[in-house]
Amino acid sequence: MVDYLPRIVDGELDELSGGLAALSIEGPKGVGKTATAQRRARTMLALDEPGQRELLAADPARLDRASPPVLVDEWQRYPVVWDLVRRSVDRDPSPGRFLLTGSATPVSAPSHSGAGRIVRVRMRPMALAERLPGIATVSLRDMLSGSASRIDGETDLDLPSYTEELLRSGFPAIRAMPPAARRAQLNGYLDRIVEYDFPEQGYLVRRPATLRAWLTAYAAATGTTAAYAVILDAATPGEGDKPAKTTTIAYRDVLSQIWLLDPVPGWLPSRSHLSRLAQAPKHYLVDPALAARLLGAGAGSLLSDSQHGPVIPRDGTLLGALFESLIALNLRVYAQASEASVHHLRTRNGDHEVDFIVERDDRRVVALEVKLSTTITDSDVTHLRWLRDSIGDDLIDAAVITTGRYAYRRADGIAVIPAALLGP
Asked: Less Cβ crowding at N or C end of the chain, within 10 Å?
């Protein structure tokens, strides 16, 4: 058994359960949903067990009689339970009654969305601040507050350390394994997606090798806004008999339903400061370790910048893209704790790009660039300065996330933050 490591989402769940009757924790298999929910539950219904499903089908009133909080695990295996919980909440809206966990969007949707009764909470793989507790010295929440947050701290993590960390994965049970076992487990995770998860979602994969090739090409597109047609061409080079567009759309739909794809949308500000912004999403898998396994990339080959997998046009190295993917994961976990959202910025002609825009509910933002280097020069902050000039006070703060040792604020006000030192 892996010891439970506190998760940032714990705080969100604790706060919400004090005022809401039912929460649904959603995320990919192996992310830790059940372990997190079990720590809060008195009763557990494991609906991935046929016997538990049969008992609930025969006696739906069990939900009302069970001692709360009631954990309904893998609820998508018996989608009827969503409406049963909703009706139970209608009868008794007392806070903290139900926790639902789900690893996929069910094929047969519930008859009601659950709006107003069941609140969804996203759970992702572990961010660096969860994997390495106590190291972070810079708070994204403080940066979002606009209070000229203090930027300082020191870390011993270097580029090989970050490379190893992104390969270890953010899935709690997998990252605790020895290297060979971890690679085998990640391979098995990917195999299960093709062999079991797609059929469970009602999609029969007629050409498993083509799906695996498409998924590998998507991994190669990590950190890019490559068109899906480009990804398909990279997956099937030289093939005249390519999958139909409807087939690749189905791939994306199912992979999204099982929370494997986690693209970052383009930023569209509500005010008219900027124009000509592109809307294409940046491509990321939910965990950079999965992308690395699909591409057959290890620490040595990444650090030596060897070629891996299909060729997708990109700026920089694959290691840079995977490091950016790790930062994307971190930011989404941290931003969720502050009720903020994560985007990227790119103008249509590509003359200006900012890797990540973290946006508050009042549309003011923190802008972040990601650099694989340990030192930052004026040229590395060109786009952040452009954005500050463009949107003025709507830019709360700006920073470059690096693999360096020290956190500090430059003379121009832009922060430099080693990735390990940034936390929620």
From this structure: N
Q: What angle do CA 168, 290, 136 make, to 5 degrees?
A: 45
Class of domain 8-122 (CATH, top level): alpha beta
Would you call the peptide bond into 69 cis, given omega within 30 degrees of 0 as the criterion? Answer: yes
3-state SS of 179-248?
HHHHHHHHHHHHHHHHHHHHHHCCCCCCCHHHHHHHHHHHHHCCCCCCCHHHHHHHHCCCCCCCCCHHHH
Q: What angle, 0 to 180 degrees and rounded to 10, lies between the N-to-C axes of helices 159-168 and 318-337? A: 70
The amino acid occupying position 72 is V
Question: Which residues lie below 8 Å from residue 57, measured CB to CB, with a gap of 6+?
Answer: 78, 80
- Angle at which helices 228-235 and 245-257 pack, to 10 degrees? 100
Per domain, the residue ranges of the chain are 8-122, 128-423
Query: Who contacts 337 (Cβ-Cβ below 8 Å, separation ≥6)?
Result: 8, 9, 11, 12, 141, 424
pLDDT in tens, the chain (424 residues): 468 889 999 999 999 999 999 999 999 999 999 999 999 999 999 999 999 999 999 999 999 999 999 999 999 999 999 999 999 999 999 999 999 999 988 876 665 666 678 999 999 999 999 999 999 999 999 999 987 778 999 999 999 999 999 999 999 999 999 999 999 999 999 999 989 999 989 898 888 999 999 999 999 999 999 999 999 999 988 777 788 888 899 999 999 999 999 999 999 887 767 877 888 999 999 999 999 999 999 999 999 987 777 878 788 899 999 999 999 999 999 999 999 999 999 998 888 999 999 999 999 999 999 999 999 999 999 999 999 999 999 999 999 999 999 999 999 999 999 999 999 9
- Look up residue 419 and give its DSSP letter: G
Please tell me whether residue 319 adopts helix, strand or coil conformation.
helix
